């Protein structure tokens, strides 16, 4: 993202009442436990590691529904 990274976005989203309840699944090459834990602390509902397949997206989103 050109102006902020994913964690910065999640922090800003968590502080914005208009969008804070919109669920987010992060997609990243960095999916270490510390990054995922931090993302979840700011409201991410899950994480998908790049490269990914359509099946992985379906599986991850299906588990959240």
Helices and strands in order, then pairings?
Blueprint: H1 6-15, E1 24-28, H2 33-41, E2 44-49, H3 54-64
Parallel strand pairs: 1-2
Q: How many domains, as an integer?
A: 1
Shape designation: globular
* Structure annotation, total helices: 3
* Overall pLDDT confidence: 90
Structural class: alpha+beta
The CATH homologous superfamily corresponds to: Response regulator
Beta-strand fraction estimate: 15-25%
Gyration radius from CA atoms, angstroms: 12 Å
Give helix and strand order, one letter per element, not per position.
HEHEH
Order of strands side by side in the largest beta sheet? 1-2
Biggest sheet architecture: 2 strands, parallel
Distance between the termini: 27 Å
What is CATH's topology name? Answer: Rossmann fold
Task: Outline the structure in words.
It is a single chain. This protein has 65 residues and is an alpha+beta fold. It has one domain: Rossmann fold. Helix content is 46%, strand content 17%. It contains 3 helices and 2 strands; from the N terminus they run αβαβα. It has helices spanning 6-15, 33-41, 54-64; strands at 24-28, 44-49. The protein has a two-stranded parallel ribbon.
Question: Can you give keywords for this protein?
Answer:
single chain; 65 residues; alpha+beta; Rossmann fold; two-stranded parallel ribbon; 17% strand
Structure at a glance:
With 65 residues, this protein is of the alpha+beta class. The protein has helices at residues 6-15, 33-41, 54-64, and strands at residues 24-28, 44-49.
């Amino acid at each position: 993202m050109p102006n902020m990274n994913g964690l910065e976005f999640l922090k800003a989203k968590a502080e914005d009442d208009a969008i804070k309840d919109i669920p987010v699944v992060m997609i990243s090459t960095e999916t270490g436990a510390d990054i995922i834990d931090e993302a979840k602390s700011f409201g991410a509902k899950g994480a998908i590691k790049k490269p990914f397949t359509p099946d992985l997206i379906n599986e991850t989103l299906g588990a959240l529904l």
